[in-house]
Every structure is written in C-alpha cells, then in structure tokens.
Amino acid sequence: MAAGEQSPKTEKDLSERQRYWLKHLRAAEDAGEPLKTYAKRLGLSEHSMYEAKRRLRACGLIAPAAERKAAPLRFARVAMEPSGATRVSTLRVRLASGALLEWSEAPQGDALRELVGLVS
Questions:
Q1: Is 9 left (phi over 0), alpha (psi -120 to 50) or beta?
Q2: Contact 11, 61 (CB under 8 A)
Q3: Residues 102, 92: contact at Cβ < 8 Å?
Q4: Quick one: pLDDT at residue 99?
Q5: Rg (CA), the chain
Q6: How far apart are CA 48 and CA 54, in angstroms?
Q7: CA torsion, ordered 89, 92, 93, 95, to nearest 10 deg
Q8: What pLDDT does residue 108 have?
Q9: Spatial CA neighbour of 77 closest among 22, 14, 120
Q10: How many degrees, rounded to 5, is the angle at CA 24 between CA 5 and CA 8?
Q11: d(Cα 118, Cα 76) in Å, to the nearest integer?
Q12: Whole-number mean pLDDT of the chain?
C-alpha cells in the first residue's frame, strides 16, 4: 500500500486491484496449486502475487498459513524392499498414514514399474 493509504478492513473495502489479486490467490488455493505454478500457468507476476498475499494477510483478509486447511499430499516416497526373489507374487504398499495396501497377484515387469511410477 502506498504511504497514507488506508488498510482495508473487509472485502468490500478492497480496491479493484486488491480484489483482482484476492480472486487469483483464492483460485490458486482452491486448486491446491502453489502460487509459483499458478502464476506461471496464467502468465502472472509471481512476485506480485506473493506481495498481494503478504499485504492481504497483513489486513486480516487472508488467514495465516496455520489457519488454512492443509493441502493434500501429492507425492509419496516409494521404496522397493529386496526380497531375494526375481518374481513378485505379492505387492504391498504402506502409506504415510500407516495403511497397508496389498495385492495377492502383483503385476510383473513393465506393468509393475508402471504401477510404482504412478504411486511415486
């Protein structure tokens, strides 16, 4: 905000430009997309998005990170445990939550590599 400019207290007090950035910030969050990726995809200034976010957060119009919902995990670490066998008869995947997924007839060869690629 420029010197002497009033800090908006509610959304209706926002300038047109502030509403513009708030709309984009919410769209990125709703999509679960990092601001950097969102800005690049739409040809927006990454710096301007982060600056608008900082200013809108300072006004209380964007919640601090701790109050926002956690974004779902997109990637998980996959580790293949050596079994000594060349053929896999059972496939087990343990998720970060502790849940275990198990297939009694695991895919073989390229199909197994493709499945591991999807999980990782």
A1: alpha
A2: yes
A3: yes
A4: 78
A5: 23
A6: 10
A7: 170
A8: 64
A9: 120
A10: 25
A11: 10
A12: 76
- Give mean pLDDT, residues 26-49: 92
DSSP 57-102: HHTTSS--GGGSPPPPP------PPP-S-SS-S-EEEE-TTS-EEE
Q: Supply 55's token pair.
A: 């200013």
Give me the domains of the chain, ranges plus CATH numbers: 11-67 (1.10.10), 73-120 (no CATH)
Quick one: pLDDT at residue 32?
86
Element (H, E) at 103: strand 100-103
Strand duo 100-103 + 91-94: pairing: antiparallel
